[in-house]
From TrEMBL:
Keywords: Membrane, Transmembrane, Transmembrane helix. The chain crosses the membrane at residues 6-27. It comes from Andreesenia angusta. This is HEAT repeat protein. Pfam families: HEAT_2. The keyword Membrane applies.
Amino acid sequence: MILKEYVKNLFFIMLAVNVIMFTFLLARKILYKEIERRRNEIKLVYEPKILSYIATGDRSGLSGDLGFLEKRVLKDMILQYSKVLKNGKKDDLIALLDRDKIVRSIRKKLESRDKWKRKIGAYEAGELNISEVARTLIDLVDGDEREQVYVASNALLKVGGPSYICRVLNRCLDEAIMEKSNMMYLIETIDEDIEDILLNLMRWDNLYLRTIALEACGRRQYRGILEWIFKGFEDSNKEIRISSLKGALSFKEFPYMEHFESLTRLVDDEAWEVRHFLAKNLKKVDDPRVIIMLKSLMKDENWSVRSSSGQSLLQKGDVGIEALVEMLDSEDRFAREKAREIVQREMLQNGLIGTIRSENLDLAVRLTEKMNITILEEFEEYEQN
């Protein structure tokens, strides 16, 4: 009798617990759904106003007291449109929010034991320009987790600009912690003039930082790096030679003729990467000797070098096309096949014949005849196989 009563009571207790849990979960689901509906309504109201503010600077519809949920939605939209909010517009929108509360929220995330929360906090700090957490970001930059170091470095440079670039560069001396491409991206996010900082890196006895400086200065058109690029063409380290060529290639106008002899020596460089970027650079050099250099590089054993050489010849107009036509009869199989591939593609996709000037119609005729013979030979070879 006692056991029966005990089982009965246990059954009702479990039933009550299940009913309570079901009711709680149902209410929670209804509440979250209602919050999401309300968030969407708020977004529909404020998104056009934010886009209007970005386009025209009119923020008349973004004034007044905002509720808790409205501030949350506005914060999310600031993060969403962060890349196009310039010239203080982002700060104006952040001023509508409770900045102290945002700082506390981000700091809590940055100090969390959860690595994903730390990364989210670092991202928000950078996008919202929360400089108050710079010290905490520095601690994360000094950490050992690669993704965390990258995200925190990105945020630190956004909140502090050039003042923290040396700190980030020093941390990145360990190439295992951040790849060069990531460091280059971080430098590009800095809007301020950092020429002096980058040029100073060339005086450091560190290969990694010197290659970054050579390439970054080229991308930012800092002509103070020209002397180092010229020296880099002759450097004994292949990484410096490669980065010097990358830096030169990034310049809209580069004085190649001042050190043309250095370029000619790179045709026979032992590193295929050097020959590859040399071929890319030669398309910008206005000198008839370049055609001879590119024809030599078309015979290179490396596919990338041959491809870059062929593309550079195309950029040379009729004289380059003439060189490609000659390469169709080259004794070198690599050069012959690459020339055929490039010419066929350009004829089919970009109307290569139509790019030849009217005074050089004989070139167009020879090119057409040569390609017809080539196609016929390929067909006969296919039939035999």
